[in-house]
Amino acid sequence: MSRPTGLLSAVRTVLSAGTSSVLRMADVRRFSMGRLDHVHIRVPDRAEAAAWYAAHLGFEPVEEYDFWATGFEGGPLQISADGGATTLALFETSDGHPMVAQETGVAFSVDADTFISFTRSLPGEINSPVGRPLVPNDVIDFDMCWAFDLADPWGNQYELNCYDYDRIKTDLIEPDGIAAVRYWPRELYEQYTKS
After folding, report:
1. SS3 of 58, please?
2. Going by C-beta distance under 8 Å and a sequence separation of 6 or more, which residues neighbour residue 173?
3. Which of 38, 107, 169, 180 could bond to 159 as cystine, CB 3.0-4.6 Å?
């Protein structure tokens, strides 16, 4: 079986052909979006939400952006778990901005030690997206990484990933007897890597 090339091949073909005269010009660099900066999250009370995120997921307010939180009404409280490189912008709900939970998911990545520690701390006060406490057997085996889907108390959904696949398998999954969730048979990944 040969490795599937459909989607990636199509993307590469479009990029190599150029989609406009601007992209075809030899002296113009292709635009690159850059890193993820922040995600807008709606919550009923920014202070209460910031306290929950600090206590359960290690987020802290980013003082550099305090003006947005305190300088005018309706601005975001920026919180971060990585020193401000990536933030969640907590916006308080109002008449013009109703509570709409972020349900498409935002993924964060952690190292193996953090992922193991997080898993062994479960269950706690972090819920799965269906509203029950997150437990170790909620871990998802994505073949190249391990993940948890989780939600804050207001229904905003997140994914926590660890790409140190072998370490998580040998130091956590096997010794703790965790039965991971799978969305496709392992054989599909094995066939893919052999082609």
Report:
1. coil
2. 139, 141, 146, 180
3. 107
Q: Which two structure tokens, joined as six digits, stand for 97?
A: 């901005």
The pTM assigned to this predicted structure is 0.81
Q: Look-up: residue for tokens 């190599």?
A: 16
Q: How far does Cα 177 stand from its chain's mean position?
A: 25
pLDDT in tens, 67-82: 999 999 889 999 999 9
pLDDT at residue 8 tops 60: yes
Q: How far apart are the first and last CA of the chain?
A: 6
Q: Which two tokens stand for residue 168?
A: 């998580």
Place of tokens 């709409």: 100
What is the identity of the amino acid at 29?
A: R
